[in-house]
Each structure stands twice: as C-alpha cells, then as structure tokens.
Amino acid sequence: MNADWTGGPDQLFEADEQRRETAQRFRDAEVPLIKLWTYYYGLGGDADEMSLDAYLNEALYLPATQVGLIATAMTELTAAEDE
Amino acid sequence: MTANEGPPHEPDGLAAAETDISLQRLVLESPDIMAFLVELTIVAASRLSKPGNSIHSGVTVIRNRKPQAVAASDAAATALDELQNGFGQGPCLTALRQKTTLLVPDLTAETRWGPYVRTAVEHGVSSILAVPLDLSGDADAVLNLYSGCSNGFSNEDVATAEAFARQAASSLRLILRISQLREARNDLSAAMQSRTVIDMAIGAIMAQSRCDRDTAFNILTRTSSARNVKLREVAAMVITAISGEQGITTHFDE
User: Which position among A61, A63, A74, B102 has the lowest Cβ density within 10 Å, counted as fewest Cβ atoms?
Assistant: First the structure.
C-alpha cells in the first residue's frame, strides 16, 4: 500500500518530516514493532506489519489516514507504558 | 572398590538430571515469570546451603537499562540486591556486565566496589558468588548468592552454581517465550475488541455525515487528540450517542 501523492513537493516534504518524527518516537519508546502494530490494528489500521516496519524505517509512504493512526497508536501506547 | 559395585558413579550427571526435571516442573507450574524466579532462587539457595553456612539467593534483571532486583529466596537477599542496585556497582552487577562468574571469597579483603562492600559486610555478608544467566539476548540476568561465611563457596559450589545457572537459563528462556506469546495473544484480543468499536463508530460517522472512511477516521482522531481521550473511548462515545448502547466498552474494564 503506497500513498498517491498528487500534492506536489511541499506536501511530500511535510510527509517526510512527519515520518521522521514518528520513527524517532518509535525508536525512543523502545516498543517492540509487533506491539505497536497490534495496537495500531486495534485502532482500525489497515497496513500490515511489514509495511509499518518499512514506514518506520523511512522506506515507504503510507496514506494520511494510516499515518494518523500510527501516530495515535504511538501516543496512546507510550501513555499507557508511563502509567 | 570392587567390580560388583555396578556402573561408574556419576554424581554430577545425576544431580543435573534431577535439577532439569525440577526446573521443568517449575516452568509448567509457575503462574508467571516472577513466581518462577522466586522458586528458582529458593532452589538455588537450598542446593548450596550447608549446615552452618546458609546461602541467600537473588536474581537481578536489567530492565529499561536499569538493574532491578526481581526475585529472592528471602528478605535478606532482596535487601542485598537492592543495596547493590542502589549503589549502582557491586560484584553481581560486574558479573552481569562482563557475563562471567565472579567470586568474592572474602568481602573484608575486597578492595573493589568500596561503598557497597562495606555496607554488605555490615549486613553480615562475607562472601558473594555471582553467576550470569545466559539468555541469548532475550534479556540480561544474574544469579546472586550470598554467604555469611568467608570462603563460603568451595570450587565445587562454584561448579554446581554454574551448572545450575546454565539449566536455569534455558528454563528462563522458555518461560520468557511463553509469557511473550501470552502477552501477544492478550494484546491481539484487546486489539480485536477495540477495532470492533472503532469500526462501528466509523460506519456510524460515515452514515451520519455522508462522508468516506478516511474523513470519518480524520474526525475521530482529531476529536481524540483535541480532547486527549483515547480513540476507542471517543468511538464508544459516538456509539453511545447514536444508539444509547454502552455495553461495548465494558470488556476493557477487566
């Protein structure tokens, strides 16, 4: 699953930035990939584990909705760990 | 020694086999890793204790880069482990980092780990044996053994402790694997429950707002982050608002 980019270079730059930030948060949190994927799936996520891995390693773009769900999953998962 | 004494005696092999069976039973009977480790330290302490030289045993595990005293055969061992972790240095932590057995035969003659060693002596400890548990990268753990006697561990004791630690490590890896699988299964069933509620809410929003799925997700995630409420709780609120149904979330309160 890859995003259809019609928004031009500015939007691509923004997506890069967001992806880098989410990837950094993922590394800092030291959450196992499968845990993040399971949580993201529970939020209604559609991408498979390998696509998520590729996204977090900045090798794949995902549609905006999936990106939003990954970010939400990261936030909720780290908040739960801190409790 | 005469010929009719039967086959050559192998005390180590026999003891090792017995340990193996009792550790297997521990893996099967322990409700969780913690209970397993506590039993493990009790077995280790009783195997090495002799009349006049009782051994206290504890296990320290590295968790989130910090050493934690997770289990012990008794309160004295817990206190000693925690003491060492508090100082951030000591023979058990050194053994853990170097991944080699470390024997301190006489604490009063020891010059390393100054502050910890002095406090341990005050607690009545005279010798310490630390044996790392090789978990092949799954985790880092060390078996800590304390004795009130100087030279409380003979060469034979060290060999016994090392053999025991090898067997304990493979049992520990097994129980780690089991609990990881159990956790994965629990996560997955929680995900199934959560996804049901969220999918339902997405459908409801699509119907009400006459929008596509992405837009519905967008509405849901924005509400969630604006109100700082979990996505599935927002979803549950949406369903409740529309149908009055509340039972869908009760599953998460267990």
Answer: A63
ipTM for the whole complex: 0.82
For CA atoms B141, B17, B23, B42, the dihedral sign is negative
Q: Name the more confident of B66 and B129.
A: B129
Q: Do B33 and B138 contact (CB within 8 A), yes or no?
A: no
Map out the domains of chain B with their CATH numbers.
Answer: 13-181 (3.30.450.40), 184-243 (1.10.10.10)
pLDDT tens for each residue of B1-13: 444 444 444 455 5
Q: Mind telling me how many Å the CA of B17 is from chain A's nearest CA?
A: 36
Per-residue pLDDT at B60 exceeds 70: yes
Q: Which residues of A have a CB under 8 Å from any CB of B?
A: 30, 34-35, 38-39, 41-44, 63-65, 68-69, 72, 75-76
Model confidence pTM above 0.80? no
Phi, psi of B139 (to 5 degrees): -170, 170
Rounded CA-CA distance B155/A35 in Å is 45
